[in-house]
Hints:
By secondary structure, the chain is mainly alpha-helical. It has one domain (20-187). Helices cover 59% and strands 3% of the residues. It is built from seven helices and two strands; from the N terminus they run H-H-H-H-H-E-H-E-H. It has helices spanning 28-46, 55-72, 77-100, 107-122, 131-138, 150-156, 164-187; strands at residues 142-144, 159-161. It has a two-stranded antiparallel sheet with strand order 1-2. Helix 2 (55-72) packs across helix 7 and helix 4 crosses helix 5. The chain starts with 27 loop residues before the first helix and ends in an 8-residue tail after the last helix.
Amino acid sequence: MSSQDDDQVSMTVWCTLIPPEELGRFDDNGLRTVNEAYEDWLTSMRKKPFVGADTGILLDRIRILMINVGIACALDRELAEAVQDVVSTHLRRRALMLVKNLKEEKAESKAVKETLSAFFKELRFTRDIFPEEDLLKAAPDKVADPGKRGLLGKVFASKSDVDKEAVSKAAAVQSASILKRLYMRLLSPDPWGSY
């Protein structure tokens, strides 16, 4: 893939879709190809509204990016899969970081957080899924009282049953919010920045 040392990154080609720390894995021709596919995707997605977009729509738009990369790199499947893996991994990490920052004041909010965590850990941005079904599968059957802290609190905490339907619906709303943030970042000039 890359003909350069792992410590050096060529500045002749810059592809904002690839996180800066991953650029050294790819050669200049591969980066050019990926960047062209990314810019084509940006052009087509910028005119699409995201207000009212649900989890399925947002996942489809991100999957279209992955498909565009696959098509652009059709002659180099290894490159396409490596780029898709890097982007998916970084999107998943960012999503899990956003989930981690959610509050869990009540049992239902803790169940929603656990559902989202399980959903995003297993999410493949390259596959077509039915998010409602996957969120329902990811919802826990029981959840511990979020007020209990420490090791003993976790061991002796009472667990309450979870209304999986209600939790999955609440998780669908939260997942759409998280995916909107990821999608907006992908549309920005610096998708992997720390802002």
